[in-house]
Fold:
Amino acid sequence: MDQDKILKDKAQELLFKSMENADQSINIQVENGYMTLTGIVDVLSEKKAVEELVRSIPGVKSVENALTIGMDRNIADKDITEEIINRFKSDRRLEDDNIGATTKQGIAQLQGSVKQLAEANIAFELASSVMGVKDVINQLKIESPNSPHDDASLTNAIERSFSLSGKVSAQDIKTQCYNGTVYLDGTVDTPEEKKYAEQLAATVPGIKKVANRLVTRHGNTTQDNELTNKLREELRTNPWATLGAQIEAYVIDNTAFLGGEVYSIEARIQAERTAASLDGITQVQNEIEVAKH
Structure:
């Protein structure tokens, strides 16, 4: 089975499990790792959720989201605005915030202020889930006068949140802040951990934006985990591992994905052979780079 077919099958499986029957109205095409989505979804939030889901699949290079939002009837802008405001008022997470909205030709514009980036994200998600909304322009201002605004303090606050959460491998994440924007780099185990890290960073007062550049090691199934751990152990204890190998490895649906850096072509070849020799692995995608001396 070629890699594009593996990626397409994985995307369809994820959509079926996570989006109920949404996969029936969504078409997926993959060419050389580039995925295109076409079809119809009910609301904007579903369109964005589908893209986020398939983008998290290792091996997908990019996603072109050509999904359209289907509407059984035309919904007036004033009715859309009213529903958005009602959802803001009824959500306890936004009780103390000053948020308004206007809608023009199905495009909702959010205005006002919130205390945390997380609250702005909640408002965006609520508006995106309203029937008839084609797009959301988020112009909410984040006003947290009592929070630290220097980048070093913000970085420390985020790292402390990661350490206390118990759900994020803080030691695997590199955190940097520049002018209120936090950049998350590193490798975590699952897409869920990646998303949670972003949500946690957004709750820190003073953060204006989160650039989530975390990479996930593997999927969330028991078989994936077992094969991934076995592969990493084989790579770590192999004699050629002393050749300066710094290899990232994970397994998804019987396919081993190798990345990182080694210092010889021989080490790159040996890593691929090691992965291919394990029972349960049927294919190896080797993207290990050989460092220049």
User: Anything to note?
Assistant: The chain is about 40% helix and 30% strand. The longest helix spans residues 3-18. The chain has four domains: 3-69, 77-142, 151-216, 222-290.
